[in-house]
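User: Sequence in, structure out. Go.
Assistant: Echoing your sequence, followed by the structure tokens.
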Amino acid sequence: MNKTFDRYACIIFFLLGVGFMWQSTLISASSYGSKVGPNIVPFGLGALLVILSLRLFYEVLKFKGSSSKAGKLDYKKFLIIFASAFLYAFFLETIGYIIGTFLFLLISFQVLERGKWLKSILISGLFAVGVYVIFVVILEGSMPGFPSWLS
């Protein structure tokens, strides 16, 4: 645990969560007579971020070890996952949600834990297809499933 980094991170996450909650109040409360509106999810995520940042702040205060024993930050893994997240967002419309999410999760799992290909492929595939089915089929939402050249 790096106390200095965690202290700054919990302050940033707290402010970000408060910002989410504040800005979500500017979104309309309901749409088309529904009880659940588009402001619920951002407000809930902001509240969760505030709660988790308070928990992190409590853990930093409670931690008795020295911060000099902190592990070295792994910039290579961070940059690979960051680049794959950027490419995922950039190519989402082109390659579709299912393929894009599958590839992003597969790359992320392999960066974090090398090997275990079968497990990574299974989890990535089930998550991508599962979220697509829940959102598009059950909730009747709209999402780019597969690229147009595949259909």
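User: And one key feature?
Assistant: Helices lie at 3-24, 40-62, 75-90, 92-95, 97-112, 117-138.
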